[in-house]
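Course assignment 3, question 2. Fill in each field.
Student: A.L.
Task: Predict the tertiary structure for the chain below.
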Amino acid sequence: MNTTKRILLVEDSPLDVEMTLSALAHHNVSNEVLVVNDGEEALDYLYYRGKFQRRADGNPVVILLDLKMPKMDGLEVLRVIKQDDRLRTIPVVMLTSSREEQDLVRSYQLGTNGYIVKPVDFQAFTEAVRQLGAYWTIHNEPPPDGARGA
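Answer field:
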């Protein structure tokens, strides 16, 4: 059984990656955070493809997923994850700058577990990330890998 509570951060903006990692570190969320830069790379990771063929077994404890990305946007990634019996139980939190109602509604229709709009204010952002990290990596109990479907 995999005991590493890995976080998968799917974000194409280097500034937002740095801000998210800083916020997690600032609040002592010491989980391994794997950063991928677009939706295709996220699916490569989840399906053990390409450079992730030999990655450690087990799914991330949570996926922090940006909405607006090149190659494949967050909504398409979310759709693929939630339609796959082996992946659908992974919590996915949209971490986006989009305040568009249609993005919010579509994210929930596709099965997101949360939708956080990235605040412009760094203090508010770090507090949101702290709460997110504490909940998904400390308090929440994910299903064991074997219970995630075949």
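Instructor remarks: The first strand starts at residue 7 and ends at 10. The radius of gyration is 14 Å.
Grade: pending
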